[in-house]
Amino acid sequence: MKPASAAGTAVLPSGSDSGADIADWRPEDEKFWESTGKRIAYRNLWISIPALLCGFAVWGMWGIITVQMLNLGFPFTQAELFTLTAIAGISGATMRIPASFLIRLAGGRNTIFLTTAMLLAPAIGTGMALQHPEWPLWVFQLMALWSGVGGGNFASSMSNISTFFPKRLQGTALGLNAGLGNFGVTTMQIVIPLVMTVGLFGAFGGESRALVKDSGWIFGKIVAGTPTWIQNAGFAWVLSLVPLSVLCWFGMSNLKTVSPDTGGTLAAFAKVTYLYTLAFLPSIFMLYLYLPAPTGLGLLNMWVAIPLDIVCALLVMRLAAFGTMKENVAKQFAIFRNKHTWSMTVLYIVTFGSFIGFSMALPLAITVIFGFQHIPDAAGVMQHALKNPNAPSALTYAWIGPFVGAAARPIGGWISDKVGGSIVTQWISAAMVAASAAVGYVMLQAYQSATPEHYFMPFMLLFVALFLASGIGNGSTFRSIGFIFDRQQAGPVLGWTSAVAAYGAFIAPVVIGAQIKAGTPQNAMYGFAIFYALCLVLNWWFYLRAGAEIKNP
Question: What per-residue confidence (pLDDT) applies to 325?
Fold first, then answer.
């Protein structure tokens, strides 16, 4: 490796002109940043964003797929379809735990390229499975589990981008990466209903199936009997993942100051593959204990299953690491001795946990709450099986909330850079308490009505308010992390907090689905409101009160 030049330019390996490995990186040095660093940092950011977008799309696609499976008459119950969304959620969350450490172990370019290319497997596999509604439930559960790779990519992507930018720009940079990357949820919710209306791949893409129930897309209702290519929900992502993988390989960089011991390219790939493979083990074990028969044993409550999954994932990672990997993992485990790791983790659950959880649960919740008339039988027992002829289509409206939340995230980062992250977090926590309680009340009214569509507009407006607040809060909490922690710890902390918050993608579908099944959907939202109120107090105690150790980071 050549030494750094006096001018502070990035240094490349001998014989290389690709900029793949950079040995001299000093973003806090204003001269270096303006002459060299800014160009490289933003190039990596603009490539990172669409790669992360596709990761979110593949991870979150089961929220839309399950709605269309219901519309096509797949032989699964509503509860079983909610589990598919939940399985994708918990898998993606668990994958984030090793992903938060991958950048230091394997390098940014190596990690982002390989994890983007990995998305091809669940995309193609899901497309194949959806052509066979007669296949058993466990096949679709396996595909949902595999889609968690896309969720894991967020932790490595954010950890990577945080290393490229000076602290004064981290709120904006991380807000752009995460906010525009979050558009993967919206993109998926618009693109999947669209590509299911056409034979996108001709004879190679398989045959269509006729809708049993009315469906929809961004432009309105699609009536029953219309041909639908549901398999395109998976296959379509191949068209973007292949060129994006190439772009990652030729356009991104490894910062040797952050990842000094990656080894060769194949060794780096082996580390990523090894740790990602290990992450599946605790997910599979926990889901086997949690899911009811015939898939699992049904032994665990969700609130036991999630901590068990986290502990098992950390334990597997710690025990299975070897050589220099073991030393690096041990160094990064130091973040758990810092109390602010835990406080920021809880606060990020409020923001991103809500965003991804509601994104996963909302489409099917709209279908179940507003797609049926809720009428008491002769004995006075409320029934929820009669189709509502005036039902709004989930596929027409579900994208709006995630779109608003993703768009708000860069704004949240920018505002937080100006006034402080914790002030913004306090504002949005208060807003989320009020909005979630109000949503609960509207859900109560709708689920007791023969004409639930009358409550749909306030329901959607309140959910959009929740997404707006969570999006702004996503930017504010990540800005605070960049301020509180030094450069060596900020990346792993960003990854860790995003991993735990991602369990919202498991919690929200399970909680909302269970409460709908019990006939009390409002209780789910009331519970979320209580949690947000507790976190409002937590944020004030650690970062806003007069004696706070770190004031308004």
Answer: 65
Half-sphere exposure of 495 (CA within 13 A, CB side): 29
Mean per-residue pLDDT, 160-183: 82
H-assigned helices in 291-373: 302-320, 323-332, 339-348, 354-370
455/448 Cα distance (integer angstroms): 11
Q: How far apart are CA 66 and CA 145, in angstroms?
A: 14
Closest CA to 154 of 215, 210, 93: 93
Chain segment 411-462, per-residue pLDDT in tens: 887 888 888 889 999 999 999 999 999 999 999 999 999 999 999 999 999 9
Report the candidate in 344, 436, 362, 441 with the shortest Cα–Cα distance to residue 403. Answer: 362
Count CB neighbours of 268 within 10 A.
Answer: 23
The token pair that represents 17 in the structure block: 């002109």
Residue 232 has pLDDT above 90, yes or no: yes
3-state secondary structure string across 463-513:
HHHHHHHHHHHHHHHHHHHHHHCCHHHHHHHHHHHHHHHCCHHHHHHHHHH
Give CA–CA dist 396/364, Å, rounded.
12
Cα–Cα distances (Å) from 278 to 42, 259, 397, 508, 552, in that order, read 32, 21, 37, 25, 38
Give the pLDDT of residue 328.
67
Between helices 400-419 and 421-446, what is the axis angle to 10°? 160
What single-letter amino acid sits at 63?
G
pLDDT reported for residue 318: 80
Task: Give the bridge partners for 228, in sequence order.
Answer: 209
Q: What is the DSSP letter of 392?
A: P
Question: In 3D, which of 93, 64, 56 has the Cα closest to residue 81?
Answer: 64
- d(CA 19, CA 260) in angstroms, rounded, equals 16
Query: Mean of the pLDDT values across residues 499-507?
Result: 85
The whole-number pLDDT of residue 544 equals 92
Lowest-confidence region among 244-248, 393-397, 523-527: 393-397
> How many residues can be counted in the chain?
553
Residue whose C-alpha is closest to residue 108's, from 177, 180, 182, 30: 177
Q: What are 152-164's pLDDT values in tens digits?
A: 898 889 889 888 9
**Left (φ > 0), alpha (ψ -120 to 50) or beta: where does 77 sit?**
beta
Query: 243 Cβ partners below 8 Å, 6+ apart?
Result: none
477 token code pair:
């909490």
Cα separation of 531 and 55, whole Å? 28
54-68, 313-327, 400-414: least confident range: 313-327
